[in-house]
Amino acid sequence: MDLKDRHVFIFDLDGVIYLGGVIVPGARELLNLLNERNKIIYYVTNNSTRTRMKFCEKLLKMGIQAQTSQIITSAFATAQYLKQLAPKATVYIIGEEGLISEFTDAGFQIILEPHSRKSIEYVIVGLDRNFTYQKLAIALTALESGAKFIATNTDPTLPTEKGNLPGAGTMVSALSTAANSKPIFTIGKPNPFMLELILKKEGATPDKAVIIGDRYSTDIKAGLNANIGTILVKTGTGIQEIQLIPPTGPHPDLILESIASIRHYL
Question: pLDDT tens digit string along 200-226?
Answer without folding.
Answer: 999 999 999 999 999 999 999 999 999
